[in-house]
Specification:
The protein is of the alpha/beta class and 192 residues long. It has one domain: Rossmann fold (3-Layer(aba) Sandwich), CATH 3.40.50.300. The chain has nine helices and five strands. Helix 1 crosses helix 9, helix 2 packs across helix 3 and helix 6 packs across helix 7. The chain is globular, with a radius of gyration of 16 Å. The chain starts with a strand and ends with a helix. Bound molecules: adenosine monophosphate. Adenosine monophosphate binds next to helix 2 and helix 3. The site of adenosine monophosphate has 18 residues, from helix 2 and helix 3.
């Protein structure tokens, strides 16, 4: 199964992607995690994107598409994957369609976690506080960067809702309930 998990920052995408991936025995692929790993390792890509990520802005389409193109063709992804944080622009979605089509594949479902914006800032700041306790805080989990991330989501990523609805593969799930309830709803959406 080839899935995309769509939702604003703080909607719980990462947690749910990992849970679903375990259940379905396919990898959860987070472009944010891949980029953060590149930054930590100090690779050329990491050095190129570090400041952009810290501001909460999106990194260039070409760069992320290249990373995803390489990743989804690895052996562990041959029976499927869950993309978390990709695509984030219509250009990325089109590139993904082209990549899959070249291998005669397509996405099965795009699952959208619906969360109202008012609750997002609180969630992210909570995550930052919890992470601080474990000494592992994200450079972009602060109010200034979060506002930019939300603005980027609205301007660049929300158009994907129309894009995937037109393809008939979008399913909505209420992301505001408990983690377990959201996981259950995602499973229902996949079974429906
Ligand atoms: P995330 O962990 O998904 O919240 O991503 C963290 C940051 O990584 C984002 O704010 C962007 O700077 C960058 N990023 C992750 N995925 C993408 C993407 N698909 N396109 C552009 N930038 C991305």
């Amino acid at each position: 199964m080839r899935l995309v998990l769509l939702g604003p920052p703080g909607s719980g995408k990462g947690t749910q992607a990992v849970r679903l991936a375990k259940q379905l025995d396919i990898p959860a692929l987070s472009t944010g995690d891949m980029l953060r790993a590149a930054v930590s390792a100090g690779t050329p890509v990491g050095m190129q994107v570090k400041a952009t990520m810290e501001r909460g802005e999106l990194v260039p389409d070409k760069l992320v598409v290249a990373i995803v193109a390489e990743r989804i063709r690895r052996p562990d992804a041959r029976f499927g994957f869950i993309l978390d944080g990709f695509p984030r622009t219509v250009a990325q979605a089109e590139a993904l369609d082209d990549l899959l089509q070249a291998d005669r594949l397509r996405l099965d479902w795009v699952l959208q976690l619906k969360v109202d914006e008012a609750s997002l800032l609180g969630r992210i700041l909570n995550r930052a506080t919890e992470a601080m306790a474990s000494g592992n805080v994200r450079a972009d989990d602060n109010e200034a960067a979060l506002r930019v991330r939300l603005a980027e989501y609205r301007a660049q990523t929300e158009p994907l809702i129309t894009y995937y609805r037109a393809q008939g593969i979008l399913r909505d799930v209420d992301g505001l309930r408990s983690m377990d309830e959201v996981t259950a709803s995602l499973n229902e959406a996949l079974d429906a």
